[in-house]
Structures are given as C-alpha cells and as structure tokens.
Amino acid sequence: MKKQFKKTTAWKPILLGGILAVMGTQVKAQSVPSGVNDALMKGKQGGIVMLPDFLSEKIPYIDYQKVVLPGPQYLISDDPEYIRVPEAIALQEPVQPGSVRLYVYNVNGVKAPAKIDRKITAVIKNTGTGPMHLRMLKYSSQPPSTNYYLIGKQGLADFFAAKPQNTIRTIQPGEAMAIDEKLEKHIVKYDELVHGFYEFVIDQPGEISIIQTDPATSGPKALSRIKTVLPPKSQSGAGRGVFGISNYRVITHGVYDTKQGAAEIVVADGVRDPWVTGKENSRDGVAVLDGNYGVMYHIEMKWKSTDGKGLALVTWNARSGNSQWCGGMANTMVVSKGKFEGGIVQLPKEQLLTKAAPEAILVQVFPPAANGEEQTIRLTYSPPGASCLPTPLVFIPVDMK
C-alpha cells in the first residue's frame, strides 16, 4: 500500500484505561473566504470542488477520544506486498473460533526470469477436531488490476454495502478450502493487485494462508505442497499478522460550534492516532500495521450552530507532494444524512481520484437546526488502500442562505 507519513510534534497520545485521548495545542480558528463558501454550496456530493488558498495541514484540529470496540480478530496480508517468487505463502496465521476479518492486498511481482501469470488466493485449513462451519458476513472481492486506486475505493464500497450470507460451508478436520472462489478463478498478471476484504465466522480453530501459485493449481492443493513462508518487510507493504484491534469508536470532545471556524478530524496518521499492533507467526516480537488499513473508525461528532451557518465536510489529498506514490487519493466513506442523502459515498464519485490542493472532495453538507440545538454527525471511515495517509476530514462552516 502506497502510504507516506510526516511526523508532527503538535500531538501527544495518552492511553487512559482503554480510551486513547488525543490532545495538542489549539490553533487559531481559520476563517472561510466567500469563494470557498460559494464552491461548497454549488458542489455535488462526492464531487471535486476547488478551494484555492484554503487547504493546508495547519487547519485547527478537533480533539477526540478513541474507544476500542469489540470486533473480529483481524488479519492483513500486505507484507511482502509484491510477491517476487513464483510460488510461496505470503501470510500464514492461526485463527480462533469466532469472527474473523481478513484483508488480502498482494501483487504478482514475478519478473525474473520472466513476467508470468499467477494465482493469488486465500485458503483456510481446519486445525480443530470437529467439522468447521464457515459463514460469510461481509464479502468484497475485486478483479485483479493495475488500477490500485479503483480497487481500493471500490473494495471499501463493496465491504460497506455487504450483507451476511446464508450459505454455510463445511470443512472437515485437517482439510482446507478456498475462502473466496473468485480468487481461485482469477489469472493475475505481472504487477496486478489482488484485493479481497472479508468478514466471516467459524466454529473451529483454523489456519489462514495467502498463497501465490500457478493458475492451474487450486489453493488447497498448493497449500499441501508449499512449505515456504516468505520473510516479512520487503521494499513495500503495510504489514501482516493478526491484530487485536479491528474497530474504533471516535468521539470528539465537547460540542463543535460553527462560529469556531474551519476545523478537522485526523485519524490514521501514526502520531495522533498510533498504528495498531499484533503478532506475526513467522517471527518473534510485535507486528505493526503501518496505516491501520482495514480498521474501521466509527466517528461521532456533536455540533451546533450559534451563527446560523451549516457545516460542509470535505476531504483532500494532504500528502500529494510527499513522493511519486502520493499523486492521487481515492476513498469511500459512510456518512449521515444532510443536504444530500446519507449512506455510502465514493470519493470522488464521478472521477477516479483527486490529486492535490486546491482540489477537495465534498462529502456532505449539514444544515443547521432551526432552533440551534445540538446535532450529531456520524461517519464510518477506513484508511483507503493505495492512497497516502492521512486523509483529513475537514469541517467548514458555510452560509446556506
């Protein structure tokens, strides 16, 4: 995953009894030029709006607390991101009975002695003593592609929209089965990304393996003959292993008032919001998931308007200048109702990606309450695969008259 992070000294995370309070030095409120207001009011949901001389990483932040929510055991396979050998295991981790979230993000990187077609697939083996029953709760599977931005954006959209399946598959003790039959059928060409994002429940202990093999061999058959688990940390990749945090609830401090001016929520930057940690089976020590990809942030922000203004929410590619890999950003979020309908919004909606300031993407516009009473904005955010982080959530007071 292509991510770039800049360190900052303005924030200090403090762990408080399971709640992570994020604090820092307040910054003077930023005023909103009339041109910015006009652009936001004319913008479409998910559309790119031009905000010249406004977007920067100096926008005042909104303090928040993070609460770890109960959630599935979480596995991600993104290290090595590029699988350079024709046949190998990129991840192999034990899982316990219960719910499991699995994120597959691997690329066919074989180019020596020649670029060849491969299969990248996910397999689960029943290591228990009784039959394993597997039921898919959320399923998101994309065709292999070199368009990483599209896969990351569409993969999140499909995951958010997925509904539990009724089909229950059975795996006998000692046997293995492909988790996603689509991955079994795809041919992955050189430099193509395989992107699978799943949540399922099992009732026996198991072992999950992400395998690269030849297109004619099934994942379970390849598992029976492959003994090599690749070492971690190649030149790229966010991480791999089993991680203890899969869901956060983010609660902002106090009640934001539109008279305070523009402000932003920033998560998944590695400083204000540290990376989650876990265990990687092939080595000792702690595994770190750089980017918190696949972690779900359920954000709640209370706000009010004492000056009669509404509140526009935008996001933008704040790290466009960091490297050649940060030239674009594409995302998907779930947002509560406002001027536009609530629900899943691809960002941007009618284009593949946004590039750099002055471009921003309009997520939603929230009208003020008629009597000025408090309202609650709810968002579901997850760091977008293939994009540099963080992706700030910027709230801008707007005159809606």
What can you see in these coordinates?
The chain is mainly beta. The chain has two domains: 11-70 and 246-398, no CATH class; 73-243, no CATH class. It has helices at residues 34-42, 148-161, 181-185, 219-225, and strands at residues 11-16, 19-24, 48-50, 64-68, 73-78, 82-83, 88-95, 98-108, 119-126, 132-145, 168-171, 176-178, 193-202, 206-213, 239-243, 247-252, 256-257, 263-265, 277-279, 287-288, 296-304, 310-315, 331-335, 343-347, 359-366, 375-381, 393-398. The strands form four sheets. Strands 1, 2, 4, 16, 17, 21, 23, 24 and 26 form a nine-stranded mixed sheet that branches. Strands 5, 6, 8, 10, 11, 13, 15, 19 and 20 form a nine-stranded mixed sheet that branches. Strands 3-25-22-27-18 form a five-stranded antiparallel sheet, covered by helices on one side. A hairpin with a 7-residue loop joins strand 19 (277-279) and strand 20. It is elongated and about 70 Å long. Mean pLDDT is 92; it is low at 5-27.
Architecture blueprint of SSEs:
Blueprint: E1 11-16, E2 19-24, H1 34-42, E3 48-50, E4 64-68, E5 73-78, E6 82-83, E7 88-95, E8 98-108, E9 119-126, E10 132-145, H2 148-161, E11 168-171, E12 176-178, H3 181-185, E13 193-202, E14 206-213, H4 219-225, E15 239-243, E16 247-252, E17 256-257, E18 263-265, E19 277-279, E20 287-288, E21 296-304, E22 310-315, E23 331-335, E24 343-347, E25 359-366, E26 375-381, E27 393-398
Parallel strand pairs: 5-8, 6-8, 16-21, 17-21
Antiparallel strand pairs: 1-2, 2-4, 3-25, 4-16, 5-15, 7-14, 8-13, 9-12, 9-14, 10-11, 10-13, 15-19, 18-27, 19-20, 21-26, 22-25, 22-27, 23-24, 23-26
